[in-house]
Amino acid sequence: MDDKKTIMAIGGHIGDMELTAGGVLASMSLEGHKIITVALTGGEKGNPPNMSVADYRKQKIEEANKFAEMLNGEAIVFKYSDGELPVNDEVKFKLCDVIRKYKPNVIITHWKNSIHKDHAATHQIVKDAQFYAGLPGFEREYPPHYAQGPYYAENWEDPYGFKPYTYVEVTEEGFKLWEKAISQHWFTVNSTSFKYKEYYSHLMALRGCEVRKEYAQAFNVEEMSKRVFVNAF
Fold first, then answer.
1. How far is 230 from 233, CA to CA, in rounded Å?
2. Which residue, 184, 201, 117, 103, is CA-closest to 147?
3. pLDDT single digits (tens) 6-43
4. Contacts with 202 (C-beta within 8 Å, 6 or more apart), sequence order
5. In the beta sheet, which residues pair with residue 10?
6. CA 169/CA 146 separation, integer angstroms
7. 178 to each of 33, 95, 229, how far by Cα in Å?
8. Three-state SS for 216?
9. Whole-angstrom distance, CA of residue 54 vs CA of residue 197
10. Could you tell me which residues come within 8 angstroms of residue 48 by beta carbon, excluding any fewer than 6 positions away?
11. CB neighbours of 228 closer than 8 A, spacing ≥ 6?
C-alpha cells in the first residue's frame, strides 16, 4: 500500500503558504510526499517600486513555480487580483474541482481571523470548496473526494484567536530546503515593511522548542475536531 500523501496548501496570495507551512511542506517533500500549493490571487500589489503590478504578478507566478519545483511539487495560481478576491460559488467550485482533481489527503489554509481580507475570504472559500468536493450530490468533472482538515497555518497577519494545536516537525534537511526555496520569493527577503523570512525562521525554532524538536510549525483546527474519544482513563 502506498503510504505517500498529497498535501495541498491553499493561500490567499502567492507566498502565504510557502511561509506559514513551507517548512512542513519541504520536510514532507523530502520524504516523497506530493506537495501542491494553490494561491487564489497573485499577491501582486506588494510590487517593488520599480516594477508594475502586472509585471510583479508574472514574477510572483514564476516564484511560486520555482518554490514548488524545488519541492518536486506543483503550483496553481488562480486568476483573481490581489485584494479583490471574491467569496462566491464561482471561486468555490473552481477550487472544489482542483481538490477533486488532485485528491489531497490533507488541506492547509488560513485561520479565520485576519487583518487581510483575502486571507479571511480564503478561509471561507476553502471550507466551502472542501464541502462541495466531498459531497457526491454535486456533479462535476471529477468524482467526489474528501480531504482531511483544513489545518490552519500560523500567520502573523491572522493572529486573532489563533491557538497552536497541532505541531508538525520541520526536519533539519527540510528547514535547509525551505530556506533556499523561500528565498526565491522576492518579498520574503527584500520587503522593507516586514522581515518575512527572518520571522518565520525564528517562529519555526520557537515552535520546535515547545515540542522538543529543532524546528516545527503549528496549526489550529476546528473546535469540533478537538474532541477525543477514549475507552477509559
1. 7
2. 103
3. 999 999 999 999 999 999 999 999 999 999 999 999 99
4. none
5. 38
6. 25
7. 15, 26, 36
8. strand
9. 24
10. 56, 186, 190
11. none
